[in-house]
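Reopening this ticket.

The earlier resolution said the output was attached, but the attachment link was broken on my side. Pasting everything inline this time so it's all in one place.
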Amino acid sequence: MDQGPSTSSAGQDFGGFVNEPVNDHAARLLCIVDDMCTSDILDRHLGFVTHKTQEEPLAAFSKEDLAYLKQQRTMYIDACAPSSRFTIERCAMFEEDGGVGAKVMAAKDLKSGTVIQELCGRLVTVRESFLKPGRNDFSVVYSNFRKKSQLWLGPAAYANHDCESNCDIFFLRSGVACLRTNRPVRVGEEVTAFYGEHYFGANNAHCLCATCKEKVEGAYANTEPPPKATPLLHCAHCPAKFLFKSWLVRHLSRHVDMCKFSCGVCGESFSRKSSLNRHAVGHDSSMTKFPCTLCPKSFTRKEDAARHLNSVHLKLSTHHCMDCELTFKSNKEMQYHHNRCHTGLKPFACDQCDASFHAPNALHNHRKRRH
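Inline output:
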């Protein structure tokens, strides 16, 4: 599982090798110096021998080769330094690694969009004939932009795949790529990258990542026929599906002008009469107001004031999942959890492809990563 990610947005199985003159010496040199650096620095730091490309060493190093080795060593020294924003640790999650797998863990809180420059690796273009399956192909990236397949060796190669990764590959400078966070990463959380949609078989059917394990997908999917489910209601304008008619009606307001109920005071329109009635109460100055005890806000309904106090000020989790014991701060958070873990509903559809998701943040990450 400790393999290199694919930067191809289509997740191709590295079929994009280009028929152009490529200097195998550069790829071989990268393999040799990376093996030397992991042996001298990373393996001593971890206490075990990590993956090696097993490339035969050169008889002699030129002055340029020695400078190349020094730069690669600097990458690993910076990665293992106490000031580094991550640590590389042993990973026992994947049995096929044979005890030599590793993972990258955040040592500090990282904001979304943070470029982790020390979590980097050197890129060298290779041709298919150079790669030997199971030996030196554990860290290969394919760039749709460059139309080339490249070895990617360095500390970043130890970031494992996750289908909902918290980092993307970021080209730092010519010949060097690092990772950039696509959402906040907390200290102690594993730093992951997305390898590609078909990296672990068609639709990642053999994926063993933490997300697939949690969602019972990929290699963890149940091969038995699923139980007969309640028929879902389909939107006529997009791929979204819903369990209840009321959800579908609410969703349709995004596609069709369904504002039939207008306020006689301000003219604002609503798609449901109950929404109009709730709005109209705000115009009645004689109605009892329910003020918040901690801020100047007031509400026309007691339950709205209580909800505001609990969620905004007290940070209470008052919304209970109907199928498990988890609680959430808002009904939306509870519903997104319920979609993902219990019903499998994906009402948030991408307008540029057929993908759909359980929550809007998952849709946002998909658009950012794929489109």
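Reporter confirms the inline version is readable. The longest strand covers residues 115-125. The radius of gyration is 26 Å.
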